[in-house]
From TrEMBL:
GO terms for molecular function: ATP binding; ATP hydrolysis activity; ATPase-coupled transmembrane transporter activity; cobalt ion transmembrane transporter activity. SUPFAM superfamilies: P-loop containing nucleoside triphosphate hydrolases. It comes from Marininema mesophilum. Residues 9-241 form the ABC transporter domain. This is Energy-coupling factor transport system ATP-binding protein. It is found in: Cell membrane. Belongs to the ABC transporter superfamily. The keyword Metal-binding does not apply. GO terms for cellular component: ATP-binding cassette (ABC) transporter complex. Keywords: ATP-binding, Cell membrane, Membrane, Nucleotide-binding, Translocase, Transport. It is a peripheral membrane protein.
């Protein structure tokens, strides 16, 4: 779906010195069609820059990238890349463009040569898929944070994308809003959309099939979230938060308890602990 080979990126310098700072280097990465990928890493590690490369907003200054076989260096292909790769950003309020839910979703479809009938069908389908049915006439600024982010997702869905990137799209939401958006991500993934979730939350990253950890513009670790979180020493170094049950499990292991590293959630850890305790 998305393929990066030896990709590097520098922003053009704004300083007098002309020295350009390289913010990404040597990125080799393949994101498969239909994959659910999480991306973590400290602030400034290059996550958002990489997301902008994925959807053709930026071009690599070194190496090559293809998206669905399309080359962002070709002007006629970059627009198609931007249609196929949608992005949901951090601030729910900044993504609202119209005064009703319906118009907000329609906005992106206008001037795209989509017929009236098809527009109506796509909008209804998008609204249903994010669970906003009944709120078509509502004013977006009256919605909750989670609803606003789901509205942003609906606007992207109406464009029939292959990939949706969530760039810290849950970080400004309350716990209810976060759950709503994570649930939407899971549904999208089940329906075959490629989901890329940039997040600071280890608990959220656990939902993904694969996790990459970025440090200083490079991919430092790659694997399933459970594999990566179960090696905590390295993660502390990378300043990443670890899910509570894994933190607890690894501390108990270090204290000599014969726990496995198989538990995938707190329930499984508790079950294993009960097993050990009942053996005495
Ligand atoms: P992250 O999303 O992981 O926090 P970013 O991709 O936003 O990281 O930023 C990576 C680096 O690129 C940072 O050092 C940041 O200051 C720099 N940077 C980001 N956007 C720009 C820009 N538009 N112009 C110049 N430098 C930028
Ligand atoms: Mg960012």
């Amino acid at each position: 779906m998305i393929q990066l080979k030896g990709v590097g990126f520098r922003y053009p310098s704004i300083k007098e010195t002309g020295a350009e700072e390289r913010v990404l280097s040597n990125i080799d990465l393949t994101v498969d069609q239909g994959e659910y990928l999480a991306v973590m890493g400290p602030n400034g590690s290059g996550k958002s820059t990489m997301a902008r490369l994925f959807n053709g907003l930026l071009l690599p200054t070194e190496g090559e990238i293809t998206v669905d076989g399309l080359n962002p260096r070709k002007l006629e292909e970059v627009w198609e890349i931007r249609r196929r790769v949608g992005m949901v950003f951090q601030n729910p309020d900044n993504q609202i463009v119209a005064t009703t839910v319906l118009d907000d979703i329609a906005f992106g479809l206008e001037n795209r040569g989509v017929s009236r009938d098809e527009m109506v069908e796509r909008i209804q389908d998008a609204i249903a898929r994010v669970g906003l049915t009944g709120l078509e006439k509502a004013a977006p600024h009256h919605l909750s944070g989670g609803q606003k982010q789901r509205l942003a997702i609906a606007g992207i869905l109406a464009m029939r994308p292959s990939v949706i990137i969530f760039d810290e799209a849950t970080s400004m939401l309350d716990p209810v809003g976060r759950r709503e958006v994570i649930a939407a991500m899971k549904t999208l993934h089940q329906e075959g959309t490629t989901v890329i979730h940039i997040t600071h939350s280890a608990d959220e990253a656990l939902h993904a099939e694969r996790l990459i950890v970025m440090v200083e513009g490079q991919i430092q670790r790659e694997g399933t979230p459970l594999q990566i979180f179960s090696k905590p020493e390295k993660l502390i170094e990378d300043a990443l938060e670890v899910p509570l049950f894994i933190d607890l499990r690894e501390r108990l292991r270090r204290q000599g308890m014969s726990l496995s590293q198989h538990s995938a959630n707190s329930e499984e850890l508790v079950e294993e602990l009960w097993g050990l305790l009942s053996k005495g």
